[in-house]
Amino acid sequence: MEEHEYLAPDQATVWARIELLAQIYRRRSLILRSAGSVVLSAGLVAGLVQMHTFIQGGVTALPPVATPSAGLSQSPAVTIRPHAPRTTPTKSPSPAPGQLEMDAYFEAGYGWTEAEMLARLWHFRDPAEAKVEGGRRLLAGERLPVRPLN
Questions:
Q1: pLDDT tens digit string along 99-122?
Q2: With CB atoms 3.0 to 4.6 Å apart as the test, which of 68, 72, 120, 135 could cross-link to 104 if both were Cys?
Q3: How many angstroms separate the CA atoms of 133 and 117, rounded?
């Protein structure tokens, strides 16, 4: 064994090489993480710009970038509107349940205070139900047992 001892590397040299490799790997990792962050940020910005354009109602096609040596003039951006699907005109959506009754109730000058009184009188827990019932009765031509306060 003694005759092969000279083949073993010096411990200090091995440790220095390990430290150098670790430092290189840490730098590579840092560079890759920062490059990944840049790519992710660029993708988010591009998506935001595209979404903003989409929300505005069109897609803007930008002209290719001309290099100064090419001598090409840039043309203004062209806006391309996507084709909307053909739809047949339909009737306007019907109002929410109880909306007509509520409108009639408020147009007659009634408010929240009267709704509370009507709810107690008609044994409703919610004054909103009393407003709907009062509006239904007003639309039917009936008079409510409470007069508007204003």
A1: 899 899 999 999 999 999 999 999
A2: 135
A3: 13
pTM strictly above 0.70: no
Dihedral of alpha carbons 83, 89, 95, 97, sign: negative
Tokens of 123: 């044994």
Interatomic CA distance for residues 147 and 100, integer angstroms: 20
- Give 25's strand partners: none
Using alpha carbons, select from 148, 85, 67, 75 the residue that is nearest to residue 115.
Answer: 148
* pLDDT per residue as tens digits for the range 19-35: 999 999 999 988 888 88
List all residues 6 or more positions away from 114 whose beta carbon is below 8 Å from its beta carbon.
134, 144, 146, 147, 148, 149
Is-contact 125 119, C-beta < 8 A?
Answer: yes
Question: What are 144's two structure tokens?
Answer: 């409510």
Contacts 24+ apart (CB under 8 A), 139-147: 139/100, 139/101, 139/104, 144/108, 144/110, 144/114, 144/118, 145/118, 145/121, 146/110, 146/114, 146/117, 146/118, 146/121, 147/114
